[in-house]
Amino acid sequence: LAASGAQLDLVADAVVGKPNLTTGSGGGINEYYLSEPAGVAEDPVTGALWVADMTNHRVLRYSSAASFANGEAANLVLGQPDFNSNNSGAERHQLNWPGNVAITPDGRPVAVADTNNDRVLIWNDFPDRNAAVPSASCRPGASGSFAARRDRSRVTSCALPSVPRSLASAR
Q1: Phi and psi (nearest 5°) for 79?
Q2: Share in percent of the chain as helix, strand, coil (round to 5)
Q3: What does the mean pLDDT of the chain come to?
């Protein structure tokens, strides 16, 4: 909401996943294009922009949310071995329809709602390579709420009440 008397800026300044603001749907499977982007998070420590790319079964990281330029390439991919793959899977290094990504205020851990695998994957340390294996995998359990056990700011085990669709990080 704009402050009283202030004018809202209704025009986008940049676009992620397409070369410019006027390109329509379509594109390739690479570090430049997205297919059904779902969740977005900014790393509060590094300023990196993370985007859940649902139908490509991956999460992409871009170097900076603040200085992002149209058509900029992602610099890291989770859930795939490289930027040109989009195979779904249920192994620890794979994703199937990721719905969202969340990052804690200290920049770790990084969590991804892996919707069609009914789990949340957690990287306790900032992923630094493509297809990095997560530290923990949380699946729906019998408890009525999300529970995560932390040991020195590292998630060691957790349970979910139902299929994960979205995530939030407490500040």
Answers
A1: 95, -10
A2: 5, 30, 65
A3: 82
d(CA 33, CA 37): 10
Distance CA 164, CA 161 (A): 9
Length of the chain: 171
Cα separation of 121 and 159, whole Å? Answer: 11
Provide the total of helices (H) and of strands (E) in the chain, helices listed first: 0, 10
What burial letters (b/e) apply to 99-119, b meaning 16+ CB within 10 Å? bbbbbbeeebbbbbbbbebbb
CB 53 within 8 A of CB 113: no
CA-based radius of gyration for the chain: 17
d(CA 111, CA 121): 6
1 token code pair: 């909401």
Joined tokens for residue 29: 């499977």
DSSP string, 72-99: PPPSEEESSSSTT------STT--SSEE
Render pLDDT for 42-58 as a digit per residue (tens, 0 to 9).
Answer: 999 899 999 999 999 99
